[in-house]
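Summary for the steering committee. The consortium agreed at its last meeting that each partner would contribute one worked example illustrating the joint modelling workflow. Our contribution is presented below. We chose a case with several input lines so that the handling of multiple components could be demonstrated. No manual editing was applied between input and output; the record is shown as generated.
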Amino acid sequence: MKNPFDNLDKVLEHRVRLQIMSVLVTNDGYEFSSLKEILGVTDGNLASHIKALEREKYISVSKSFVDRKPNTKYKITERGRNAFKKHLDALEAVVKQQK
Amino acid sequence: MKNPFDNLDKVLEHRVRLQIMSVLVTNDGYEFSSLKEILGVTDGNLASHIKALEREKYISVSKSFVDRKPNTKYKITERGRNAFKKHLDALEAVVKQQK
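What follows is the complete predicted structure of the assembly.
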């Protein structure tokens, strides 16, 4: 039987990244400021985790203008949705193994 | 309802540390070399995670001589056992929240 720990995704092994994915998986798109408010983290902290998720193509960024002001929105990608599901299943298997 | 993410333990938010705890919670004491073999990590990597768990008093170290050779064994502490259980419960709640 494969070791469930091996299926954990290194990129998602951080609470803030898990929370970002969990917000984006149930919402069509979220702005930086709304994410920051929900997660209660600093700009720098959120930006670094968003960059890591972007680099892995788990989330995508769309830039637009709203009332002539720049607006940045983050969305989960299909790749991100699958990775998040796989990581949750692995976490579930790790927990089951310990119980 | 409290956000299940808040109950995640920052110290245990790393796969290798979870694996160390999961080995020690079911075994009375483990040597460094055996842990390294089971986890398949480098000396330096394992040592840094063990230090973090020690600093948090989640594991304790006992040093002795076996056949006149120094022997270091790691054991889980009561505090570590409780923290590990709490973290697993929080992981379970996070997974349930997403399903």
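Chain A has a mean pLDDT of 92. The two ends of chain A are 17 Å apart (CA to CA).
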